[in-house]
Design brief:
Rossmann fold, 2 domains, six-stranded parallel β-sheet
């Protein structure tokens, strides 16, 4: 296996080759990091000007660099798997006869619409529109792809609706977790009335505001209520302001950039895990929580109802009252928490281990190669 990546580069096992395709990496280094000679490159001019004007050119420029790298190398690989670049340059590989599989986790059109609906300021709406300009390319490329993999039936329907992909070209392959890592820790005691959620704190799509309103309603009944938030709000941002307005600051512990091992320990300390998202193409945090044996309360946003099924309490996305009621019900009933803990563990074992995912993907690869 060879992994082709732009920055930030992944950390891989020793037996996997990594091809690094450098870019300006302006989100890390800033606009002033560029040297004048770099602007002689068309792709670097595109990156720099796009960042200057609030755009996100990386899907396009990475696709072009991939296309250039593959010149003279097409015959070296049995199959190429694109992880949601959905770019003109990667589509060109399919045109050259390369067996191409593309994973589309979910169409980013969903994120775009939620972001617009959550932003009242016209100038911020203009920036949201500009940043999502890459969607025009993805909408053009996606219907031309022959083999699309997605992570849920809900995402498959959204990809057909938003990107115009033929349903016959789409196959559903659920994601998974490392069940040797994400598992119950029996030597840790769960803290009473501690919730845990993982969320990009300032992304409206993750529904953290809904959870904060639910917490505010729960606080009079559970004064010891605490939330472990994996994700740190931006200083002065809307989430931080809401935390202050609802008098929740002293009840929330924020963590960012923690290891998987730390994540598992924090799950072991929580009495309930909550996934309040308005939309998820899959919902990996829900699977991680179930794998750790934490009773789960989730919304039905996007694919979450499909992923969680009967292994958690599922409420309507964006409904703070319903979320409050479900959390309250879990807090008040120890036997219910034990029941959903067991259900979650069983569901992950049956459907969401990486071994099962890998077996399904191997079969899919072989089917695609047989058609070439």
């Amino acid at each position: 296996m060879t992994v082709i990546s732009g920055p930030p580069y992944p950390v891989l096992d020793d037996n996997i080759a990594l091809v690094q395709l450098p870019s300006l990496d302006l989100y890390e280094h800033g606009l002033r990091s560029i040297r004048p000679l770099q602007l002689l490159s068309r792709l670097e001019r595109v990156e720099w000007f796009s960042k200057l004007t609030g755009g996100f050119a990386e899907p396009y420029t990475f696709g072009e660099r991939v296309k250039q790298w593959f010149v003279g190398r097409v015959g070296e690989f049995d199959i190429v798997h694109d992880n949601q670049t959905i770019a003109d340059g990667v589509l060109e590989l399919q045109r050259r006869g390369v067996p191409l599989v593309t994973t589309i986790h979910h169409p980013i059109t969903r994120d775009y619409r939620v972001a617009l609906a959550s932003e009242p300021r016209w100038y911020m709406r203009a920036l949201i529109h500009r940043w999502h300009g890459f969607l025009r390319m993805q909408k053009r490329v996606a219907p031309q792809l022959h083999s699309v993999v997605t992570v849920s039936s809900a995402s498959a329907a959204d990809i057909t609706e938003d990107f115009g992909v033929d349903p016959k070209a789409i196959s559903v392959m659920h994601l998974g977790v490392d069940t040797t890592l994400f598992k119950p820790l029996n030597n840790h005691e769960r803290e009473e009335h501690r919730l845990m959620t993982t969320a990009s704190a300032d992304a409206p799509l993750k529904g953290l505001a809904t959870l904060l309103h639910a917490m505010a309603a729960l606080l009079p009944s559970f004064p010891g209520l605490r939330l472990t938030l994996v994700g740190r709000p931006k200083p002065g941002g809307e989430t931080e302001k809401l935390m202050h307005d609802l008098h929740l600051v002293d009840h929330i512990d924020c963590f960012k950039g923690i290891s998987d091992e730390d994540m598992v320990r924090k799950y072991a300390q929580a009495s309930i895990a909550v996934v309040p998202s308005l939309y998820e193409g899959f919902g990996l945090p829900a699977v991680e929580a179930m794998a750790c044996g934490v009773p789960l309360v989730s919304t039905n946003g996007g694919a979450l109802a499909e992923v969680v099924a009967e292994a958690g309490l599922v409420v309507s996305a964006g409904d703070a009252q319903a979320l409050e009621a479900a959390i309250r019900r879990m807090f008040d009933d120890e036997s219910l928490r034990a029941e959903y803990s067991a259900r979650g563990l069983k569901r992950v074992e049956q459907h969401f281990s990486w071994d099962r995912c890998a077996e399904r993907m191997e079969v899919y690869y072989r089917e695609r190669l047989a058609q070439c």
